[in-house]
Queue: 4 jobs
Job 1
Amino acid sequence: MEIDGAVKLVVGATTDALKACIATHIATAARSAIAQRGRYILALSGGSMPHTLTRLITVPGVDWARVFILFTDERCVPLDHEDSNFNACNSAFLNRLPIPAGNILTIDNSQGAAEAIAQDYEKRLMALLAVHGTLSIDTVLLGIGPDGHTASLFPGHALLCETKKMVAGITDSPKPPPERITLTYPALRAAQEVVFIAVGVAKASLFKEALCFSTTSVDGPREEAESAEAADCSLITATIRENLPFPAFQVRPASGELWYYTDREGASFLPAHGLSQTQTEKMGTGFL
Ligand code: 6PG
């Protein structure tokens, strides 16, 4: 059974093309949010994602002073620790963007255990959103783990049933380190848009299990061209199967768009690496 409502899968023919597409997507969302609401609130994840965001430092026309950064999940380690998601994002690209330090919401480890850090983070997140007159993050960027987890929401974990907290502590994460904080389903689903970035062959079987494609699932243009490399991305419309055991595919924004970005390896379950002419449209002339 499929849900109503299409999701969009973008396949980058090369790593550079994928990075260019992702950077353009975020820059476009940022410019639009800043034009309409005076600020852009972006949530980042860890894992391999920071390395897919490096092209953000080249995008023009974003008023970075009006951009606010938070983390979908964070490991309870010092901010300069090699396991810190902030540290990974900071060294990959954040430290080269003129975002005021006060606009970056990092965890406060002095709060104590994971749950106390989570409560403090939730308080500061809600205060940030309230100042900007909203209850939702503009763009949530998420990864997908090989077991189908996202942020620090793992298959079968009690946190999947959380309905009240926006941020929760976890002390038994199957992916090390075990102590983390994570945004919950309610916080993630309230976002204006959710964008998954999941690359590599390990994601192909998850996408195969989760996504359905119609033979006429060609989508049209979305954005203006910003780079020639981005022309090597293809856009495929899909739907998500129901009753999947993977938390990643349970994160669907209540309103707003849901995107998946992957590379040729991640899309290798599709015929011709997902680039079949009957199913896709090159994004060069319209999308980017
Ligand atoms: C974390 C991440 C986590 C990650 C996935 C995918 O802090 O561990 O936020 O949810 O996004 O595990 O990681 P990869 O992109 O490395 O596969």
Job 2
Amino acid sequence: MSATYEDRQLFIDGRDTASAAGRRMDVIDPSTGNVLTTAPLGDAADIDAAVVAARRAFDEGPWPRMSGRDRARVLHRVADLIRERADELVEIESRDVGKPVTLARHVDVETAAQQYEYCSALAQTLDGSVRDTPIPALAYTRREPLGVVGAITPFNFPLILSSTKIAAALAAGNTVVHKPADDTPLSALFMARLLADAGAPEGVLNVVTGTGPEAGDALLRHPGVDKIAFTGSTAVGRRAASVAGEHLKPVTMELGGNGAHLVFADADIESAVGAVIKAFVFNTGQFCMAGPRLLVAAEVHDAVVEVLRQAVPGVPLGDPRDPATVIGPMAGDQHRKKVEEYVALARQEGGRIVTGGGRPELTGDLAGGFYVEPTVITGLPADSRVVNEEVFGPVLTVQSFADEDEAVALANSTAYGLAAGLHTRDLARAHRVAGRLDAGIVWVNDWAMLDPAVPFGGVKQSGFGREYGPEALEAYTKTRSVVISLPTPPQEES
Ligand code: NAD
């Protein structure tokens, strides 16, 4: 077994710590279905220990009191260490999530490093402003950290999504308790140690692995937690927001998506189809900002579907350890079953499977992995559940539109609003339609162009709050106003 994902412990108060109850859970390699290792099954007692450590680090420790520049140095060292230890992190994300190694290296690991780099710059921008006021006073604002942040993250991009929250929260001077997804906990435990190596003081980052209903729920309810940063499904997010609401904790909710991808007749069709394929197979479709709903101008619908029929089966699928692989397994058997149920439902709803629809035939170790074929479906009615719900796998539905108004109406017709995209050569249309789509981010003539400087987040059932960009700091700071009386001196008698 590699030292990279050896049986690790929880990380609390700067130390590897066995869970209070001593329980552990299996971690499965989705590319083979075999048990890879185990991780601690933390519960409310472990969450309590982690929150106490984070609370002490915030109330008494150096981290919130350090200058932004000193915090920036630590965060920058984290970025450097991520790159130095990239091989280990690629191995972890590939084994734990089933990610193709090329994706893990160039997207997951590199993005995490960039986030720490970007947030190290943000740490030096926490300033306030002087306010002009008619009252006889000097009035100014300060931006201050919130305290202890409870971060809860999903299974699909464990390293990126935890770094998104932790780097921004730490930049602002908060301390963090992180509860990663039950089925992909390994990079979180690795990163806890890496942050300590980079110089993060004891208690600044604590990681408790375990299930949502046990460890996650305990974090939501803990009175020592000042803010919840949640990324996950809309169903769980709704519950998490209401539990946090009972305790009047501020929340950021990054939830599900079901992005519409519009191709107008004047688009560069070859480039558009390339982006369409990327948008639905990226990370084996387990991407909140995926584009699983293709909306095509009626006059080019059949031509686009034909190109997809020919091209999609050729996307390299298989062993995540092969650098050429683009589509790996689903991250868990339950995720594959859910995709297969949606494909069966599509058949019942009258859909036509253009390509895919089954399991690929793989041999050797890979025969036990959780693979599904990339699948393209046409002919579904507008009220189809497969069109309107989040499938979260490599499944693309195709519908046609007659004009711009219908395209926008179809695009905005689901409950979600995370990402959307459009392809056109008409610049005026690009701006016009981008402004009409219900989505936190809109891409034009490509898909998944993401950068730590560019904010993203949801509208409607995709959540609220923004991550990335300077906006991320807003979510982890509060404003304090200071007003100093400057009484007018009494007039001296002449
Ligand atoms: P999930 O909602 O099942 O789990 C997310 C996290 O919540 C996990 O850590 C889980 O253990 C925890 N959790 C579960 N029940 C809980 C409870 N009762 N109390 C507290 N915590 C609980 O999501 P998932 O299946 O891991 O991830 C996939 C979902 O995440 C998809 O819907 C996807 O769109 C969404 N997602 C959103 C974004 C975004 O930025 N908007 C990014 C990635 C994934």
Job 3
Amino acid sequence: MRVLLVEDDPMIGEAVRAALKDAAYAADWVKNGQTALTTLGCQHYDLVLLDLGLPGRDGLEVLASLRARADPVPLVIITARDSLDDRLRGLDGGADDYLLKPFDIAELLARMRAVLRRKGGSAAPLLGNGVVSLDPVLKEAAVAGASPVQLSNREFSLLRALLVRPGAILSRTELEDRIYGWGEEVESNAVEFLIHALRRKLGSDVIRNVRGVGWMVSGGA
Ligand code: CA
């Protein structure tokens, strides 16, 4: 999953980006509102983390522009602004959650998971399609009837990207987009390599290849 972090504070930005990477998100970081809007106009993101006090265009303006152009991307505000008025403007303006600085990274990650679940239409903490389930906290996958297997961050990212939409075929580019942030080098056969590793761990039937198009997990029951 790809996350855009919009934050002008270098220390917070660096810490959050590192934590996102650690949690197996592909994370891109921009430092002002205008760049955020431009970036969101040309790249798919699964979630945005938005600071409010930004140089140039303020975070609430960024949020308003996004929703005005009918961009439904899940969005969590992270800010030191704790007035009721700011919180209400953020939530009424279309933010999905609001987290006050300073926050604990573990809470930020939990809230992101909760927002992604709600947006995905599921209250269940595990992703799954009836064949394989994935625990986003432990990064463990389990095929029905077998013990859970630990996945690497990138194996986890790839399987999560597929399990978010069981039955949908994702191309190599779409998978790379969800696994790698800016500046991360992508080997030309990286996706095949990860699929191979996942099949070794979970069995060859879990991920299907649709020749010339991409990969999918079955739509399940
Ligand atoms: Ca700020």
Job 4
Amino acid sequence: MTAQKLEEPIRRLEVPRLDALEKALGETKYTTDNVEEDALYVRVVRSPHPHALIRRIDSSRAERVPGVVRIATARDIPGSNYIGYVVQDRPLLCHDKVRFVGDSVALVIADTSESAELGVQEVKVDYEELPAVFDPGEALKPGAPKIHPGGNLTARHFVRLGDAEEGLVRADFVVRGTYSTPIQEQAYLETEAALAYPKSDSMVVLGSMQNPFMVKKAMATVLGRAVPNVRIIQAPTGGGFGGKQDAPDEVCSMAALAAWLTKRPALLAFSREESAAFHPKRHPMIFDREMGVSSDGKITAVRASILADGGAYASLSERVLFVAVTTAAGPYEIPNVHIDGTTVYTNNVPMGAFRGFGKPQASFAAELQMDEAAERLGMDPAEFRLRNILKAGSTAPTGQVLTSSVGLEECLVRARADSAWDAKRRTGPGQGEKKRGIGMACTIHPEGLNGEADAATASVEITAVGQVVVKTGLTEYGQGIHTGFVHIVSKVLGTSPDRVSVVMPDTDVVPDSGPTVASRSTVFGGKAILLAAEKLRGKLAKVASEMLSCPPEVIVFEGDTARCQGRDDGRVGFEELVSECFRRKLNLKEEGTFVKPLPFWEAGHGDLSPSYTFAVHVAEVEVDTETGKVEVVNYTAAHESGTVISRDQFESQIIGGVAQGLGYALMEELILKDGIIRNKTFLDYHIPTAADVPHIRTIIVEAPDDFGPFGAKGVGEAGIEPVAAAVGNAVYNALGFPIRRFPFTPERVYEAIEERASRS
Ligand code: MTE
Ligand code: MOS
């Protein structure tokens, strides 16, 4: 692909990204940069088998390795061994059996990382191998190896609206297909790491993570009464993408266990190979899907079944499945919907949260099938979508009537115009070996924790010298959310952004604002912060009104001053105003809590969230039919996420999401053979580099939302959601037939072309 050209001059950012300079200068201290001399190093003994009973663990030789301080097994855990977000099915250290290649069996704690590594090699585990199962369909069959005591079914979900059978019968035609999506590895730059410090009556753990309060909860399970006081501090975190939702529960608990057993600080940091082997990844899913369409281009019904491989432990499979099932019909008005989803245990690496959380998979199946139906109709795919897409007041496929902002249609119209869609569809693929194609895909993203109650609390405090300090449990791991919080506070208080700081989450210092997942920080954290800042503004306005002699309602805060609206005579500076408040012994600390209206979900239908974000992407590709190579030559991403708080952050999230989506669409393919990951490093697991990413044109549609701060909605995940589908439809347009599985690697595309040629 061609390298991104700088088409616009570099602009000055409205609010400079808080962490940018220190990261660019290499000054940021990640977890492993904080190790002190007396720290011990922990390494994990991992299972080489996908499924086996543990007969005996012999650590005697390992204990004699110079530098090894201690070996820990399940027997050394003072609390409970079982952790997990949804189902507590994952042992921190396996004691009776292992369920995937890489499952944790013991910890080796040593003076140096090298000694610990040598110790790992000397721990002898007697395994009795069990038959294993790697295919989710096979895992559900009677007689399949049973991975957990309760069997191999992890969860089921469904959606029911109208009568799908009837809707398919009434249709003028039905399109059917099986679509499959690959595993994707989060590939964050910083691998997992935790540093635990024992104190006389407590334990402090510093680590790379998304959810410190969830780690604290896990620690209460693992350490239990042995260490009642645990304090979790989030270190600067080099990427999460969902992979650091639940995995840090284990990493931090292991480091803490080592520190508790030895009474010394202990570091556990993973190599790239270990990271790849261990943390939950994007679920591969298979969609059997049929869609009924009338001859005038209206969708009459969608019926689908989804099968997800959840790997060896539950992780977030149940939640990811819920999102895939409830968005599988796509962002369309469909009167009859029948969707069933199942997620299954196998002896593969666990699957869990990854940016998009089930939607990139659902979008691929739905959007490819949309184009197949458009072809049957002889209708332009953009036109076909326009006839069916959700608008304000529409009933979504889950039965919810959409009341808040719905900017999908405008996204589609503008992406179509921006990409010169109509002209390019007319031109067609061309005559040569290199075929051009242009494809479109839409996405629907329900805000926040879908179908669940959700709330967040934050505090804002003004110090005597006029610094504004924001405390929230919502973490920064690359999204730029803390910079977004600064925007919100400085807007409400009319201060310059450099007065405002956001405290690094520390469970002893900040409130629990819920997990930093599901693109929820802008809406939940942002709104809680806005509410707190507004309370402070009310207090400041009262004092300013007395100082300036005008009613508090007309006090305007801007440019670090307060003044009376419509009057230019007097102003009071922010610091002076704050000093006056302190003289009057006013408390300038406020809390805000935002509670989402409780969604209704029952018997396969209901509300997922009060509001939704939308996107329409258009990809243009060139497919070399001689080699199968797909090159993305143009890309347009139109997004509606309510009001935009920071344009720079917003666009960078979209561009990052698209880049990660292009990796998913074109090259990322985790090779799993008999449960063993064959490509654990970036040498063979390819992710896009800057040279692989074309210029991505972003279009921002603003449709203010009823709930979020200033009408904003989240944007963290949506950028990745329609990418594989847009690329898939562009490849379809170039070749004249759809390829229903990806990544669109040269081999896969070439084979599809050959197979097609042999059939005709
Ligand atoms: N962007 C960067 N740079 N790094 C990340 O790890 N994670 C994504 C997305 N964008 C991620 C990212 C995921 S999985 C989520 S849920 C959202 O950010 C969270 O964003 P929010 O803080 O805006 O809610
Ligand atoms: Mo994001 S997958 O919700 O951390």
